[in-house]
Design a protein that fits this description.
With 130 residues, the chain is of the alpha+beta class. It has a single domain, classed as YaeB-like fold (2-Layer Sandwich). 29% of the residues lie in helices and 33% in strands. Strands 2-3-4-5-1-6 form a 6-stranded mixed sheet. The longest helix has 15 residues, at 100-114.
């Protein structure tokens, strides 16, 4: 298989909390994590200009990795492209058409990151080891 074009990193607060990683492992079901892994496996091999609907939506400053609805809501991960890295800033199970709370939190975390009040870590899409 070809080497991935993209690396995925998660936002870390200045208190060292891996907020999106914790959401992924603690708030999603195994089936929901599988759906996200499938979407990431698709996107990581595409050049950035090919990230388009229905897989991704660009909002200018941030973007949204999209996965169809599950029984609990639509899976969304908000983040930002930086060179060959996509930084995951916020993950949600979206239940509304316009998720202003989710995008606002992602933008707040991006601002923190840009101001040196946060960091990133290599995101682990695998199942948590026991």
């Amino acid at each position: 298989m070809a080497e991935a074009l993209w690396k995925f990193r998660g936002f870390v607060t200045d208190a060292l909390t891996e907020v999106v990683q914790n959401w992924y492992w603690d708030e999603l079901t195994k089936d929901e994590r599988d759906l996200i892994r499938d979407r990431i496996a698709h996107l990581e091999h595409l050049k950035g200009h090919l990230w388009k609907e229905p897989y991704y939506e660009d909002f200018g400053d941030i973007g949204e990795i999209k996965k169809k609805s599950t029984p609990r809501g639509a899976l969304r991960i908000y983040g930002v492209k930086k060179s060959d890295v996509f930084v995951l800033l916020n993950g949600v199970l979206k239940k509304v058409t316009r998720d202003s709370r989710g995008t606002d939190l992602a933008r707040k975390r991006l601002k923190l990151l840009n101001n040196g009040r946060g960091n990133t870590h290599g995101f682990n899409f695998q199942e948590r080891s026991s």
